[in-house]
Every structure is written in structure tokens, then in C-alpha cells.
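Retro notes
What went well: the complex prediction finally ran end to end.
Inputs used:
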Amino acid sequence: MAYEVELDFEKPLLEVEKKIEELRAAQKDGKGDRTAELEALKKKADQLKVSIYANLTPWQRVLIARHPRRPYALDYIGYLFQDFIELHGDRHFSDDPAVVCGFAKLDGRPVMVLGQQKGRDMKESLLRNFGMMNPEGYRKAMRFMHLAEKFGRPVVIFIDTMGAYPGIGAEERGQAEAIARNLMEMSLLRTPIVAVVIGEGGSGGALGVGVADRVLILENAVYSVISPEGCAAILWRSAKFAPEAAKALRITAKDLTELGITDEVIPEPPGGAHRDPVGAASAVKIAIRRQLEALAKQPIGELLDARYGKFRAMGVFTEAAS
Amino acid sequence: MAWFKKKDKAIGAGARKEIPQGVWVKCEGCSAALFSRELDANQRVCPKCTYHFRLTAWERIALLADVGSFEEIDHAIHAGDPLGFTDSRPYPVRVKESQAKTGLPEVVLTGRAKMDEHQVMLSVMDFGFIGGSMGSAMGEKFTRAAETALAERRPFVSVAASGGARMQEGILSLMQMAKTSAAVGRLHEARVPYISVLTNPTTAGVMASFASLGDVILAEPGALIGFAGPRVIEQTIRQKLPKGFQTSEFVLSHGFVDRIVSRRQLKGTLVQLIDLLTG
């Protein structure tokens, strides 16, 4: 298949994939048997997927995490769950399409599903505000988490946003308050919560739906206090240094897990989730199911203490005798 | 004609040396030249336009705590360097510079204090320490203060002054938002009063966590209060922001703080609230 967005480091792979496609088309048109050639090319593509993806820089992972063909929340919801029923609105101001919420079943068990949703084309991107939630979005998410708590359903959250929306209306309606309240309420929510960073974990905008018992992250997803461009603009005085900032901030799945921020890295298919969304979704499903099963066994008091302790323990400081 | 004799004596540079630096301060609000000692005597509020100058953490504690009552806790907690972060300078160097400049171990001072004989817990930030940025040390100190307040059932008063998270600690600084908010959550559940005071500026990660979670939220007049920085918003929407946007008054009118309180009345208001909540 053709990719309209070309990442430089993927070029050798994209060229092989293009050739495969051409050969397939030729074969379909009955222009001779090219099976052997195709097999060789496929093998080459597989090798390239492994070799390119084994040595990605943090900045390259940022670009993959933002890839426009990467599976989004609704894609995962479609692959993972049955009977998803989307429900809308924060009951105070409006419905924020940057976050989708609703009940669904995971292998027959009812769960509450929330997902930060980006748009696939310009029209949908505008509707979804590029996945950047407004205060009503955080309040909507919290409303459904409380609903899950009330009916004893676990919460599954897909995180994928460049950040909370920085706009005039967002400030007028209390973006900071909305996020702060979620951080507090989620720490007290009396039902298991599993969050999965599927693409971009953009700062407070991500954390505002990210206080969970388990925080999982896809292999090529990132999670950061500030975008590499933003950090570079402030500390290096130019956004050009984003690759340096991406490295310094330690935002990759591996780094985050080493730092104790994420609990598990979900491997992506060779060549990234954007090449094989179904493969990615099946890995995500296995991980979520396993985590939910483990959490369901914990008494709620223990679960809440463990959740508090998990975030309580985050941070590195020194305590010298003075 | 004796007056002219002065001409022979060196005036100018030599004479000026005797005047200590910073005797005159230009008001950031009305541009008036203020005599610094007079400004200090007026709690660093401009006597002409009531502009509230920033206070250091120790000045704030002197303003709020009964004389000699503040007992600092966790003085020994300092920033680590979890990421080995270096931009133009290594992060530990930035920390050392800020420590030397402010005389503070970290961006926040925490401790037990009395306010008009009420036993309280105080957490006071200093914007002069790396832009009032919250890193792991701040998160730990705030959380311990909240936990002490909970254990001793002391009303907890937090004074915020911050530009947000401390980038040099990366994702760990972001997580301090969750950590401090969870600690406030436990205070709420136990019904220990938590009062948040917002001073100039309180934005981003601090505003989007514990600073927004007070049972009562007070703000000093004219402070910059918001989530996103004004420049970030302007770049996003490609428009100039309206006058008065993200000020204390703006936030009050939109319902996100309870009262604007001038510095002169701050301690009295806090004491009154604590009395009404606990008395």
C-alpha cells in the first residue's frame, strides 16, 4: 500500500513496498508469474522493517507516534471491543469530540472505554480539534469514569493527544481546573483503571486522563512533559533542536518504563502500528485483558492504596542530612 | 560664592557608590519610582497603584506565620538529576545557581506554623527558583506537607507562584501533578481544610494540579493565572489576547477562584476562613 506521508528513515522500506505493489498489480493483470520475485522482495521488506525499527532515535519515534496512518482510539475500540455504545456530553457545557466515551464489552465483560481521538482527514481533524481536549472534554471523561465507578465497571483509556487545547475558551472555562480535578478524582476512583498511550502522550493534556492503576505504552508511542519542539524553543532557543530535546527528555516507551512511569511496553508489529493496525490491536488487547484480570482480583481498598503509592513514588530527589 | 567650591570635589560615580543598589524601584504596574524601603514597609505593594510585587518564600512566610512560629520541615530535600539533563548548561548547575541566588534549598518551603494561634501547615513557593518550576523535590515536599497536615489534622495553606513543570526533569516533573493532586485528594476525603493562594504568576502544571484544588481558592490582585502561557495561546489562535485575559480578576469572573484578596488582608482572610472551617 502507498503511504502519502514519507518519513525519511523509512524510505528504503517504502521503495521496496512500492515495488511489491507494482509487481502485484502486474501479476493481477496477467503479465506473467512474478511469485519468486515477489517473495524475495517481501523478505527484503521484512528485513528492512526489523533493521530500521530496531535503531530508531527518540525523534524518529515521535514522528511515528504522530504518523497520520497510525491507528487511533476509535480504531482500537473497533478492533478490541464488542457492543461499543458511544455516549456524549459533559452535562454542563457541551460535548467534546476530542474524546470519545462509552460502554463496551471486552470478551463479554462490560467496561467503560475512553479515548482521545485525532482526525484522519482535515474535516475530521477540525471536528476533533486535532485530538486536543477542552475543559468540557476532561469533565466529560470524568463523568463517564464516575458512571463506571457507580456500576462497578473497569475503565480503559486510550491516550493520544499533543496536549490540552490552549485557547481563549479553554481558559475561560477553566482548563487548569478541569485537569486538576481529574487528577484528584482519578486518584480516588473506586474502580480499576488501565490507560494505554497509543500515540502521543502530550503533557497535562494526557495526564488529565492518565492517572491509572496500570499505564501501558505502545513501543513507538511517546509521553512527555512538553513537546520536543516546545522544549527546544525554550531551552535551546530554537525548535530546530527538537531531536536533541527529544533525546534529553527521555520520552520513549523504553525510557519511560525504566523511569517507572509506564508499567509495560506493548510491542508493535515490525514496521510499526501504522503498517499493521490489526496486529497492533491484538497485542493491545492481550495486554489490557491481562492487566484487567489482575486488577479485578484486588480488593478496592488495596487497589486505591496501590494507586496512590504508585504516583506517590514517582520522582527523583536527594535527601542529604543537613 | 562658596557653593561653587563643591565643583572641585569628585561628585558623580564616587558619591553614588555610597547609595546601596536597589534603593529605587520602578513599579511594574504604574512605572512610578518607589523608595525600596517604603515598598518593603508596605508589604511590597505599590503605594500608588497597589501593584503587588513578587514576594520571596521567606517574605511570604513572614507575612503569614506568627512571628517565630514557622518550623521548616524537609529542608534537606534537594533536586536530583534523573535524566542527566543538559541544555546550554547542566541542570545541576542551574539548581546550584538558583540555590545561591535565593538562599533556598528548593522552589518550595514547607513547615508547621501558627496563624493567629491556629496550628497550620504551610507550603510556600518562590518564583525566583528556576521560574517557580515544580520538579520531584517540590512534589515530594508538598506531598509530605499534605500528609503531615492530614496526620495532624492541621489546615493546609498553599501559596503558589509558578510557571509550571520543571522541564529538566522531563516526565517525572509532569507526574508531580498527579502526586500532589492525589495528596490533596486524601485531605479532601478526611475533611482537613485546604486553602490555595494564587500569586503572580500561577500557571501550567501547578495551576492544573494542587493550586486549583483548594476548598477555598484566594488570589492576589492582578496576578497572571491560567493554564497555557499567553504566548502559547497567541501562537495557537494567531490573535492578540484581550486585555485583562488570565488575570486574577478574569479568573474570578469565570468562577475559578473564590476571592481576590489584597496582600494586606491576606493573613486575616486566611485566619477567618480557617476559623470558620475548623472552629
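What we learned: Chain B has a mean pLDDT of 92.
What to try next: split runs per interface for comparison.
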